[in-house]
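Format notes (please read before filing issues)

Several people have asked whether sequences and structure tokens are stored in separate files. They are not. Every record keeps both together, in the order shown below: the sequence lines, then the token lines. Line labels are part of the format and must not be stripped during preprocessing.
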Amino acid sequence: MKEANSHNLYDVEEVFDEKEKMMNRLFKEKLNELYTEFGDSKVMVLSTACNNKVSSRMMSIVFIDGKFYFQTDKKFRKYKQVLSNFNVALCIDNIQVEVDYSQVSGHKNE
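Then the structure lines:
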């Protein structure tokens, strides 16, 4: 009986490995579609939060070398919100990208 269980466990692991490979492949395909459709720039919704208050606004976003960029002034609320809560989201159509801004390399706080 143990042999059957170990064989079944192996089959289950193999199925999960195949599903994970398929999901990774689908994710990469969809990500490439987003990049292709996005082009160099788009207007997207940027959502930020501070003190349990969420703010969303339309922003001009550029895409350079696989990274999204936006520009703002230090005096604006979104800048202060990003500094106090690094979790931001970008949305276009029905696609949402959530980012922990603290993990983004090369961000400028000046």
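For reference, the curators noted about this record: The helical segments are 2-38, 77-84. The radius of gyration is 20 Å.
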